[in-house]
Amino acid sequence: MMMLRIFFCLLLWSQCVWSQNPPEDDYREDQIFLGISYPFLANGSPDITQNKFSHALQAGFVRDMPLNTRRNFALGLGLGFSYNVIYNNLRFLEESESFELISNVDTNLWKWTELNVPIELRWRTSSTEVYKFWRIYGGITAFYTLNARQNYRKDDETSRFSDLSLEKFRFALHFSVGNNTWNIYFQHPLAPMFKKSQIAENDLIKDLGNAKIGLIFYVF
Fold this sequence. Notes:
By secondary structure, the protein is mostly beta strands. 10% of the residues lie in helices and 54% in strands. The two termini are 28 Å apart.
């Protein structure tokens, strides 16, 4: 897992660099984050619709590495985990590895879990004495898919489960802005969410990606 190795090497490097500073200069905004958002399918066919209440949860930690003497402008490097559920009318047919639009279904949902590695520039109005402040954070998140499944059930039939061939590595732009604990969060994909082998055979998912809008909470 090259991505995780790079992450831990950067954390170790930042700890060594800042540990050489005097105690009064060690102010950082290392933070645990929790988020809840509404995920939606972006850049797809207008015939693709979502129903019920899709949702996504995320949690993780960001290491803060200040870039100026006031320490209110920094680079953030994090590691987290997210769980995503999207109810929609696009059914994956495992037998033919194709997709079809469906109607009159009780349940058709995609759910997947992933590791997140956010890299961001961070600006805030904080200081060593001010703990409630405005912030604007933005950057790129790298995702590694751990598990992806579809759950399909029509009328009173038994649920049918099948694997979804999401790209293992994906990237998205992310942006958050807010005051103190409460912050608005937005994510937009930089590439399709399905593997290239499936995209080539299915026009419906050619540019389909996963976007999100919601809230992110910085706990510490």
